[in-house]
Amino acid sequence: MRTGSTEAVTSALSIRHGADILHAGGVIAYPTEGVYGLGCLPHLDEAVDYLLAIKGRSSRAGLILIAANYDLLTRWIAPTAAEKEQLTSHRSNPICHQ
Q: Is pTM, for the whole model, over 0.90?
């Protein structure tokens, strides 16, 4: 028996369960460096409304978008040329766009 195989299966099931919740319009909690974050799929208005309600926050306060690449952000942001260059350059550090 391989060590760690149970953990890998549990992890895969947890990821699948989280994906199912997201695709059904739900909100998930996920670990970050210091606290848990809350997330939803940004193209599902009901999910975003639910996330804002959980946080007790107005949509005017804005939200953080996390994406694997710039192309996934273009539906929600309109950066200047300089901001686009910063967002599309290959970096190991996160970029914040305000």
A: no
